[in-house]
Amino acid sequence: DGGITQSPKYLFRKEGQNVTLSCEQNLNHDAMYWYRQDPGQGLRLIYYSQIVNDFQKGDIAEGYSVSREKKESFPLTVTSAQKNPTAFYLCASSTGLGTDTQYFGPGTRLTVL
Amino acid sequence: SQQGEEDPQALSIQEGENATMNCSYKTSINNLQWYRQNSGRGLVHLILIRSNEREKHSGRLRVTLDTSKKSSSLLITASRAADTASYFCATAETGANNLFFGTGTRLTVIP
Fold first, then answer.
1. For A13-25, how does the pLDDT look when each residue is reduced to its tens digit (9 = 90+)?
2. CB-nearest partner of B42 from A56, A98, A106
3. Percentage with pLDDT > 90 across chain A
4. Do B40 and A105 touch (CB under 8 A)?
5. SS3 B40
6. Residues of chain B predicted below pLDDT 50
């Protein structure tokens, strides 16, 4: 099965803790993205990567960090510097240009206790 | 970033009726895409229309694009209860590396 997976589905974090959200794809896509979605809202871009070992900040990168050591993987770390991290996080990938069709994972719901 | 604006924010119709959602944007684009999101799930790509296209069909979906008015519409014909979801437009702005997503239209189809 080709696709994009995210884990875990639900994640609970205490204030002051860093957490890492996993995103893996076996679609052989070059580009990967992280979005944040708040209730009733659209998607806001956190970080994106168009190639291995390179990534760019999106509109709301503060308090987040990423790495892209492998083509298949693009983990997102939510740091303690992110003041309001409770949200639904979506990972996506595309073949190349960011303006191509994007394929989304099922999402991770992060709740800060 | 320039997000598309969907209209209406919410739409409730009876099964069998047609549903029309609109998207307006502000800049020049290479393409415009529509996505669907079931509650608590990821987005699913529905259709992509390029800036030199005016209309596109896919099954019960019909998308139009008017670049002079910077607007697009998504028509779902003969709606079903399973069409209940949020629908987002996403614009691929000229020169940009990413898509810009709107805030979505929440469609409820009543059986």
1. 998 899 999 999 9
2. A106
3. 80
4. no
5. coil
6. 1
